[in-house]
Amino acid sequence: MLAPGSAYTLRDNPRTRARSFCEVAPRNGSQVIEYGGGGMPTAIISGWFRFGATSVKPLTSLLPPLILVKADQAQSLALRTTLSMLASETADPAPGSELVANRLADMLFIHSIRAHIRSQSGTCKSGLLQAIFDPQIGVALKFMHEKVEHPWTVQSLAAACGMSRSAFAVRFKSLVCETPLEYLTGWRMQKATGLLHKDDKKLFEVAKAVGYDSDAAFSKAFKPVFGVAPRKSISIARGSGAPRNQRPTNLAAI
Prior knowledge:
Layout: H1 21-24, E1 45-48, H2 53-62, H3 76-91, H4 97-120, H5 127-133, H6 137-146, H7 154-160, H8 165-176, H9 180-196, H10 203-209, H11 215-226, H12 230-239, E2 249-253
Antiparallel strand pairs: 1-2
Helix pairs in contact: 3-4, 5-6, 7-8, 10-11
């Protein structure tokens, strides 16, 4: 898995001349490229994911520019199974194949992240991944993620993971590069944006769901993060035709 903006070349041998993808791109809307010959048949699945702007920040803070999951990792079985199913759906499309491929792509993404996190659990040196696996700070993050509506304070979070307030605040900031309450506010806003896009959610319901007692308090926290008031965000998401968080698309079997 490559981060946005990454360029790469795929070769069978380091000395092989690379050709532009445009030279071999499928025509007439096909999703399948047949290329080369003479060697062992190989199926390659490629594609990309699109994320809304509010989803990118937490992902980029968690993930490296490149994730490589090797075949001998214990977590690779689920990936191999998913890739095999993707190859089948894209090579021989049937009614509903696009929907199935998109769901399988969701699974592929999740399994890749799981494999990466598990492979790093003993060696992670810095950043949010280290915080997640930290025996104390990880507990605080888990509480914030699972109970975002709770009226957390630095003191209550410190108590939840068995630390003094000052020691907790210092260690949290050193690992996450944000104070506990800055991180909590950011996480609440991420959750709120997803709720705001649901037509059946009123503003006060969203505010309460992410830990605010009133629309005013929620709006005061929301605007500095996204640059617009929550109601404006709702109108943009629902009325202007701006894209919502999109599902993975454009998977190709080569």
